[in-house]
Design brief:
The chain is 43% helix and 9% strand. With 292 residues, it is of the alpha+beta class. Helix 2 (48-59) packs across helix 6. 25% of the residues are buried.
Amino acid sequence: MSWGWGWYPKPKPRRPAKGIRAKTTRGQFGQTWWAGQWIEALERLVDPGRLSRGRSYARSGQVLNLDIKRGRVDSRVQGSRPTPYKVRIEIEPLADKAWDKVVDAMAAQAIFAAKLLAGEMPQNIEEAFSTAKVSLFPSKRGDLVTECSCPDWANPCKHVAAVYYLLGEQFDCDPFLLFRLRGREKGEIITALRARRSAEVAGPAEKSRKRAPAKVPVEKVTPLSDSLDHYWMGAEELENLRVAFTAPEVDAAPVKRLGEPEFWMPRGDFLPRLSRAYAAVTRAAVKQVMGD
């Protein structure tokens, strides 16, 4: 049988036994806002046809490993050849001065600081980076440098795209890996935020100690014996008072913000224990008040 000039059957990729298989079997990769932003950045920069083949590779478990470091991701992707291809994705880490500005912007937003100190990533964290005039995500083609050992002339190829899609799912599980890729570990961010917040609290207190003590006016207090007839009656201004009782947006925020005390043993299980206790107290309180 003659195949004709220039035609040959394309070899199928080998299916590795222990590859990383994408959680999504169809539709969009990435369930969270930050994972979506990461994938969106890729789809702006890469040819749609290669993205389609990259999604197929990610879902079939062709990616063997993901090693996420400061400014770099190393991976191996199984193709049609016996030896896996080596993939590298690089994105330049933010400079120290830029990170200082980002942390300042995070500390200035109470909800950002509370969530981050509680080990949670705020949905709109990119606002803090925009304030510092930098971006957490790649925004132009030059922001990403990709390399693959496969013979495909195109860059990024389908192997790079597969790794990129799986990174989006990794960011779903641990969004702080984005910070690592941009040059800062989660612990470094939390330590810097605690220092900023402590300085804010200590600053006013230090100033107040330096001021001369102000004279406190003496309030005239009605004797209790003169108030017994109406002691249990509420004031008129309380008639329109309405109270909303809801669970806190950040559970166990005081404990998470202060961190594990030095005296606690064994190390490492203080925050999980207290977080579970706070969550149980919250559920019981809401159930008691709401009658549910």
